[in-house]
Amino acid sequence: MKGIRILGAGMIPMGKHRESSYPGLAVPACLTALHEAGIPSSAVEMVFCGHSFGGMLVGQRIGKVFGIGTIPVVNVDNACSGGASALHLACKAVEEGRAEVVLVMGVDKLTQFGGGTLPLVEEDPEVRRGMVMPALYAMRARRFLYERGETASLLAEVSVKARRHGAANPFAQFREEVTVEQVLDSRPIADPLTLFQCCPTGDGAAAVVVTSEAFARRAGARGVSVRASELHSGKATGGYRDMLRPEITRHCVADAYAASGIEPGDLDVVELHDAFTIAELVYYEALGLCAEGEAAAFLREGRSTYGGDVVVNPSGGLLAKGHPVGASGVAQAVEAYWHLTGQAGRRQVEDARLAMIHVTGGGIAGMDHGACTVHVLEAS
Prior knowledge:
Blueprint (H helix, E strand, L loop, with lengths): L3 E8 L10 H16 L8 E5 L7 H6 L9 E4 L5 H14 L5 E9 L15 H4 L4 H16 L3 H15 L13 H6 L2 E3 L2 E2 L8 E10 H7 L4 E10 L13 H14 L8 E3 L5 H10 L8 H6 L10 E2 L4 H5 L6 H13 L13 E8 L9 E9 L1
Helix pairs in contact: 3-13, 5-10, 6-10
């Protein structure tokens, strides 16, 4: 992918904004992104809005508040990958010459459900058998601990790292550090996962402005370059599935590395989909950050934090920053943008040049996930 830039980014603090509407959540993030890009809303030629639970025409409802109308507005529901899928569509629109300035927003309000696990499609046979997301990831965790000869304290260490990173992030839902003991002693959810090993329910919104390189040059702006944008869907397989080898992520990231011309060791920042602690360990290997079988050592040796090989989830990830489903992929892009432009404050990854964002979407019977989106971003 060539000639695609992100010129501005905005986000609101993730949390429980029970009194806010979807426009109330998203408009501040959109206006911040447009202001940083130096672009008036009248210059926006297309809008892509990622969400899962916003209802009909959520992008139009948001855009009308700050004067966006008549132009194409596309609402994108791809479960947790909705925001990242919206970014992918925006990059493709610019690459294909259909627009020079595109606004991407991601937004969701999970407090509308009053707590508990998120509603899934009841027609799915695995959902009917009780396969909610915590149960699925708990199965992965039990398999991982058994095959690798590890204990639940390893999972807790993922949460400890996430909370330590999140403590430096003013946009994170959880900003206090925790200990392994506190993680293990928190309320049981699905054995071996406890409450502090699950991403929190919350609300949030994020936005980025995607432009052509030619537009950025005319505007005298540098921003961040998009080196790769890949979107894959899952493939159903009957019978046994290896829960520690998420094929959709492996295939998607392989295409992203090929498209960008980089290798895992080139990355400075990775924001990956850590909805539960076990996910981070599995994705270390799936993204090629370490060899298969080395995830535990990769974490324990500090290779996934500051001073290590690559900083994974400097935002605190979904475990600390929060996971308002449709907003998360765009929020990852905002975090990466801030690091690549030196705006990440106390959590800044020094001299960050290359970043990867990775998010998966939903579980469907016979698939490890329904969607996966990977982007590679580079400082300009």
